[in-house]
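User: Predict Stage III sporulation protein AC's structure from this.
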Amino acid sequence: MEVSLLFKIAAVGILVSVLCMVLKHSQREEQAFLTSLAGLILVLFWVLPYIYDLFQTIKDLFSL
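Assistant:
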C-alpha cells in the first residue's frame, strides 16, 4: 500500500469531519450524514483494488 493513499484517506477524514461539524451546528443533520456517507464511499473506492488484490493473493496461496 502506498503512503500517499494513507495521506489521502487522512485528508478526506479530516475534511469530512470538519464539514460534518459545521453542518450539524447549522442544523443540517441530513447533509452531514450524506457528507460522511460520500466520504466513506470515496475511500472505499480507493481501497477496493487493494482488497481485491489481497483476496487474489490469498486465493493463489491456498490453491497450490
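The chain is about 90% helix and 0% strand.
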